[in-house]
Amino acid sequence: MAAGTELTPTEYIQHHLTFLAKPVGEGGGFWTLNYDTFITTGIVGALVFGFLWLVTRKATTGIPSKTQAFVELTVDFVNEQVKGIYHGESKVVAPLALTTFVLVLFLNAMDFLPIDVMSWIYEHVFNQHTWRGVPTADVNTTFALALSVFALMIFYSIKVKGLGGWIHELFCSPFGSNPLLWVFNLLFNAVEYLSKPLSHSLRLYGNMYAGEIIFMLLGLWAATGIVGAVLGGVLHLGWSIFHILIVALQAYIFMMLTIVYISMAHEHH
């Protein structure tokens, strides 16, 4: 759907920001599934991890191919980041960090697909009038990922310290074990715990959502005439190059916070 030809600028943006959402049951509301997010995430995840599986299956001990070398460099990079932060004994953290980094990176990279071209494909090929193709621009996706990490953080806290030790830490750290301080300790720890999934999810969501909006605004500018098309094209190219850094950086930050939070769960206070 070309910008500025069939819709007003407001309608154009609203159209591209509308999910393919369907309520679960009669109530709807909170229990609404964004099918485009689910489907896109599933397809991207299957393609990316299927590709990694094929590469590792064909890996050789001799001179690696360029594809194998790329995968090995990625694995080594993530492994080095984990070793620098996490000093526990769990063998799950490094694969978790790799999975998180790769998945978030390629979900973010969906933002590079031309939004109007993809909208035309969704509408005329798949008969879907509304479809959002960037799962990490959906706060439900980022919250789901962050809450998964949060659940693992709680799991490792209890596993390493024991249930009694974890509860003792909630009530006795950081101000001391005096019963008069229990309420203040609990409130302090509650704020700390709740802030982690919030900051973890909203940082990624905010950056990807803002990038999506900027691409749409530049597309609208490019539809205003010859001058707008030239300036919009130049700015679109510049923003696309800069957005490569944002896409990779946000995936890296999300992975690093995952490692940090799980590492913190192993610390005793």
3D structure, described in words:
By secondary structure, this protein is an all-alpha fold. It has helices spanning 9-16, 35-57, 66-85, 93-109, 115-124, 139-172, 182-222, 226-265, and strands at residues 21-23, 32-34. The protein has one domain. The chain contains 8 helices and 2 strands; from the N terminus they run H-E-E-H-H-H-H-H-H-H. A two-stranded antiparallel ribbon has the order 1-2.
Brief summary:
The protein is mainly α. It has eight helices and two strands; from the N terminus they run αββααααααα.
Approximate helicity band:
over 70%
Mean pLDDT: 88
Give the termini separation. 57 Å
Q: Can you tell me the overall shape?
A: globular
How many beta-strand elements? 2
- In percent, how much strand structure appears in the residues? under 5%
Low-confidence stretches: 1-5
| Count of separate structural domains | 1
For the biggest β-sheet, the strand order reads 1-2
Judged by helices, strands and strand pairing, the structural class is mainly alpha
Give me the Rg, rounded.
22 Å
The helix tally amounts to: 8
SSE pattern: HEEHHHHHHH
Biggest β-sheet: count, sense, barrel? 2 strands, antiparallel
